[in-house]
Write a structure and sequence with these properties.
By secondary structure, this protein is mostly helical. It has 18 helices and no strands. The chain has one domain.
């Protein structure tokens, strides 16, 4: 496939995963990288396209591929892209990105956390994006690009002064990710956050903090390092192939019905799924209040 053919195939959501085009993109990494960067820039310059054309998908594939390539030029673009207002953010924050934005940021930042921290601390940025930034820092600890002590120190700053002292979703994420890093040094700050009613206890019961402390630092960090949800982006096809968003080509485009009109046959088979509510991470406390992780409770 030519670069033009690859880009054409990756431009829109088609219901199935475009494996051949993605594989060709990886083969032609040097040639296609500038074009993938342009795809992200295009969305930044034309944010309305995400409201008006729900099938536009080029930026999503671009972010995964650039993360796989460990392309540092994508870092400022993605960080700037996700500063867009909240009312626009969820027009394109589909289930793929809401699950993996933190991993994508960690994969392209080349160890530079400055722009991730800007997202986390920006009160005007969507709560999900701020939360993804916190997750990105945990990824960097898991892959040993940042020390646990450095990120724990930064989390302490968030607890003490860099987060507004009003309840919002990202407070729960901050406590949860602190437990993933072993929360010993942050216990006083965490307890104060609970006393000040900044934490939704049905999302993040305090006994999960206590469970982490009981395990010990070595075990908690080992579990983080072995958790694929806190790894860098690997092969794009492997990352996306199990997403419910994608079906096989045959499932997405069934055999034409001879009795249907030409207009019906040309109609797009499926619209991409866009969440109306914030995504609950697989490792986050289940909102039912059971105290279990979502993946071990209502997600089953």
């Amino acid at each position: 496939m030519t670069i033009e053919e690859i880009l054409k195939e990756l431009e829109r959501y088609r219901g199935y995963l475009p494996r051949e085009a993605l594989a060709e993109a990886v083969e032609k990494q040097a040639e296609i990288t500038p074009e993938l960067l342009k795809n992200i820039q295009y969305v930044m310059d034309h944010p309305k396209i995400l409201r008006e054309d729900k099938r536009y998908f080029a930026h999503n594939y671009a972010m995964f591929l650039l993360a796989q390539f460990r392309e540092p030029r994508a870092y400022p673009l993605i960080a700037e892209l996700y500063k867009i207002p909240e009312d626009i953010a969820f027009d394109f924050a589909n289930d793929i990105i809401t699950g993996d934005l933190g991993r994508i940021l960690a994969s392209v930042c080349n160890g530079d956390t400055s722009l991730i921290k800007e997202l986390i601390e920006n009160e005007k940025v969507d709560e999900f994006v701020r939360s993804a930034g916190i997750s990105a820092l945990c990824v960097l600890v898991a892959v040993q690009e940042k020390s646990r002590e450095e990120i724990i120190g930064y989390f302490k700053e968030l607890f003490d002064k860099k987060f507004e002292r009003t309840p919002f979703y990202t407070w729960n994420v901050l406590v949860d990710r602190s437990t993933l890093l072993y929360p010993e040094e942050l216990l006083e700050e965490i307890e104060k956050a609970y006393r000040d009613e900044l934490i939704e206890t049905f999302l993040m019961p305090f006994d999960m903090v206590e469970e982490a402390l009981e395990k010990g630092k070595e075990q908690v960090i080992l579990e983080l390092q072995e958790n694929p949800e806190y790894s860098l982006i690997g092969d794009t096809i492997s990352e996306l192939e199990n997403e419910a968003l994608f079906k096989t080509k045959e499932e997405s485009f069934p055999s034409p019905n001879p009795e249907s009109s030409p207009k019906e046959e040309e109609e797009p088979p499926q619209q991409p799924y866009v969440r109306e509510t914030k995504k609950i991470g697989r490792n986050e406390p289940c909102p039912c209040g059971s105290g279990k992780k979502y993946k071990k409770c209502c997600l089953k």
